[in-house]
Amino acid sequence: MMGREIQHIDILSHFKRQYKNLPIEIQKIADEATQIFKNNPHDSRLRTHKLTNFKSYWAFSVTNKIRIIFEFGNNKNVFFYSIGSHDDYKKI
């Protein structure tokens, strides 16, 4: 998936609920980070990395404290599972 554009992001209901509970300014930053992610999921600004404790999950940074947890699907599709702090990883 290195350097390829994302065609579709599936946003799961858990992610939607967490996103709605974020402050508006963090939502805006998350939206900007998602646009960067769609163009290049491994853009260095996102600090995209594989999660060691979760088999097929990855994460990228929205802010220093907020991350989006996702999974690469088939055909340039991605699933967004969770958005939140490092502690929220346990809740996906």
Question: How would the blueprint of this fold be written?
Answer:
Elements: E1 8-11, H1 13-20, H2 24-39, E2 49-50, E3 58-61, E4 67-72, E5 77-84
Parallel strand pairs: 1-5
Antiparallel strand pairs: 2-3, 3-4, 4-5
Q: Gyration radius, to the nearest Å? A: 12 Å
What letter string, H or E per element, gives the SSE order?
EHHEEEE
The helix fraction, in percent, is 25-40%
Query: Mean of the pLDDT scores?
Result: 89
Number of beta strands: 5
Structural class, by secondary structure, is alpha+beta
Strand arrangement across the biggest beta sheet:
1-5-4-3-2
Q: Can I get a quick summary?
A:
The protein has 92 residues and is α+β, with helices and mostly antiparallel strands. It is built from two helices and five strands, in the order βααββββ. A hairpin with a 7-residue loop joins strand 2 (49-50) and strand 3.
Describe the structure.
This protein is an alpha+beta fold and 92 residues long. 26% of the residues lie in helices and 26% in strands. The protein is built from 2 helices and 5 strands; from the N terminus they run E-H-H-E-E-E-E. Strands 1-5-4-3-2 form a 5-stranded mixed beta sheet. Strand 2 and strand 3 form a beta hairpin. It is globular. The protein starts with 7 loop residues before the first strand and ends in an 8-residue tail after the last strand.
